Amino acid sequence: MTDKFPLRATFWRVVAGLILLAGVYALYVRVTEGLGAVSNLSDRFPWGLWVGFDVVTGVGLAAGGFTICAVAHIFNIHRYEPLTRPAILTAFLGYVTVIVSLLIDLGKPWNIWHPLIMGNYHSALFEVAMCVMFYTTILFFEFSSSAAAKYRHIKPVGVYHKLVNKLIVPIMIAGVVLSTLHQSSLGSLFLIVPTRMHPLWYSTWLPVWFYISAIAVGFSMVTFEAYMSSRGMDHKLKFSLLSEIMRITGVLLVILFFGKMVEFGIDGKFALLAVPETETYMWWLETIIGVFLPVVLIFSPKAKTSRTWLFVAATLTVFGFLFNRLNVSITSIAKSAGVSYFPSFMEASLTAMLVTLNIIAFVWISKHFDLFGHHAEEGAH
Fold this sequence. Notes:
With 381 residues, the protein is an all-alpha fold. It has one domain: Up-down Bundle (Formate dehydrogenase/DMSO reductase fold), CATH 1.20.1630.10. It is 71% helix and 0% strand. The chain is globular. The N terminus and C terminus are likely disordered.
């Protein structure tokens, strides 16, 4: 029997609807009354949730697109190709969300085009802005090539599909280069405030730490998304591929942790790990959740056979990454700013709305284009 009510209310649809309503109202207030009416930002603390989560964290969480493309198409390990389409779609939606977040956060969003003709060419922020703009365009070409395959019987679409397919390798190489530049440059943004950041997070190696952690969380997001979409949309996936990339994630997390420990030893920071203050507790929280627990799970025998075990490891890695980026962009600067900051309800509403729209777009596109049809299930509990 056909479903006469395809839009019937379910618990999660009601929750999503409420989030969207709250977000739309907050956006209306933001546009009509300005930043001060919706946020707890100030001149002393101008970067909050919208930059710390939506941009600094969001760019990293979208790193699965360039990591999987690099492995499958540049290093020619073709068995990873089944993971490329959903990874590219996730990355594209993530970068679109980052751009929308910037438009919301900017005091004068209509001036967002200014860097194109009047940029500070020595600024890390200018480099990030340009790379994000160009890489989002590249992600559009990468995904539209796959999407156009469904309608290639229409002549203009077919011509476009063939043209992009001929150029897809150099397009992907350009995407990997641009991602490498701005994933590391996000860390460079904080190098100009050494006296304002807490020493547990300030490091001249921040660009390197940001890049390594982006690769690690990129693989974890691919695993997280594959597991969740397989449960929600009933598609099959290659467990062995996810197990392999999560083992790479585990190695990267170990390298990242020991690299930071060497730096702590050189700079004499180990004593800070025992200081009873909020910053110390937050550092230990991100390290335990984002390094210790995932590494133990990834290299346990169960991770080789259990999809759920692998999913938990990926989820912990993502949350650890989230805590790290929020700590770098918010926690580490809070004390020196001399003001307390906590996101307002409307700030959180706008962020939640963008995340919800991301999920809705992913589900809709997945249902209308062949993202997972070429996957095959392998022995996993």
